[in-house]
Amino acid sequence: FPLFWFSMPAILKGWMDRVLVQGFAYDLSKAYDGGLLQDKLSLFSFTTGGSQEMYSKEGIGGDIRYVLWPMQHGIMHFCGVKVLEPHICYAPENVSEEKRKEMLTAWTQRLKTLWKEEPIDCSPEWYFK
C-alpha cells in the first residue's frame, strides 16, 4: 500500500476495522503474544512519497519505525500476529527507472525466502531504540 498521511489508506484501515473484530481477531483477555491470531504472519509492504532520509531518526518525518508502531504493534501484534520486517520502497516516483526495477527485483527475491524469515521482536525497543 502507499503510506498515506503517515498511515495506511482509509480503505485498508476500513477493511481492518471490519475484519479484525473482537472474538475473531482479538479478545481483551488475550492480546499481543496471547492474541487469537497468534499462528499468523503479517508483512507490511508499502511505498512512501518521501525519501529514506526523510524517514530516518534525523529526518523531517522521523524514524519510519515510529510510523509503523500503531499499525504493526497496535493492530497486528495486538491480535497476536507475528510481524515480519516491513518491505519499504522509498519514493519510487522520484527515482530512476533503473532504481524502480531494483526495487521490484528486491521484492521478488524477498518473496522467494519469505517463509524462512524470523518475525521482528515487536517490542517498544525495536521501534524506539
TrEMBL record:
Positions of the Flavodoxin-like fold domain: 1-111
Classification via InterPro entries: Flavodoxin_fold (IPR003680), Flavoprotein-like_sf (IPR029039), NAD(P)H_dehydrogenase_qn (IPR051545)
Pfam assignment, any one: Flavodoxin_2
GO molecular function, one term: NAD(P)H dehydrogenase (quinone) activity
Keywords annotated in UniProt: Oxidoreductase
One GO CC annotation: cytosol
The family this protein is said to belong to: Belongs to the NAD(P)H dehydrogenase (quinone) family.
Protein name: NQO2 dehydrogenase
Native species: Sylvietta virens (Green crombec)
